[in-house]
Amino acid sequence: MHPKIALIARVGAHKTFEALGLKPEKTEVFPTPYGDxxxxxxxxxxxxxFALLSRHGEAGYDLSAPFLNPRANLYALKSLGIQKILAWxxxxxxxxxxxxxxxxxxxxxxxxxxxxxxxxxxxVGWGFIRHNPVFCPELRSALIxxxxxxxxxxxxxxxxxATIGPRxxxxxEIRKLRLLGGDLVGQTLVPEVxxxxxxxxxxxxxxxxVNYAEGLVDRPYQPGVLFEGLATPEEMxxxxxxEQAFPNLxxxxxxxxxxxxRACPCPRLLExxxxxxxxxxxxxxxxx
Length: 288
Ligand code: HPA
Prior knowledge:
CATH topology: Rossmann fold
Bound molecules: hypoxanthine
Number of strands: 15
Number of helices: 7
Distance between the termini: 29 Å
CATH superfamily: Nucleoside phosphorylase domain
CATH architecture: 3-Layer(aba) Sandwich
Oligomer: single chain
Number of domains: 1
Radius of gyration: 18 Å
Strand order of the largest sheet: 2-5-6-1-7-14-9-11
CATH class: Alpha Beta
Largest sheet: 8 strands, mixed
């Protein structure tokens, strides 16, 4: 099997596809110069082949965001011949109109965490690449079209603010991030998206809001429950309904994204450096 598209998901996502009767044909961990990748599962479904990797763990939430190894995961996906990546993430909302359970296809990023490692290219002269648009425009538009008609509210734009965890933000930090123009806040898309661009992947994100960010709405502190009371049981039920719909939705979305022609700039993000002779055709020789 030679999938060209991968889904980078949260926790134990291979199990969510069991609801559709889908079982991985194989699962492998790939050693890379950056350490081992997370296990990569290979699926086949009605003519679609895709790879699936869960960032945070296979059975539970084993690794918090700052300790993920996106370089190893992306290196492994690139070695497999993957060209397109859909990132599936669950951020908080900075806007009253983006409610828990809503789907958001972000169009831009504010990196307020500056967590690393943020590049494959230390100590060389390449990598000064434009980040507007930061997400693949082709994948974004295929994603937005495919989401038309889903029984959830879909926002076709959003600025994702990256913070560094594992802690959540203070209320004052959230007020600042709103003033900066952020719509969503999360800890996983960065530096993954920046690293993916360095390897010329097409990369887009499908997010679903899991909570209003701190201080946006009045929520008493409740020790011992998820998010310590940041989300109400009703909101968590709304989120669970979206999660239930995801396996079906994702296979549709992945099928549409797999068909996108790659006429976007993504396969040539480093073209300037190729033409200049700084890098050759073999991407393995670019990375350090
Ligand atoms: N802040 C940061 N990351 C998050 C949040 C949040 O409120 N919700 C989900 N991931």
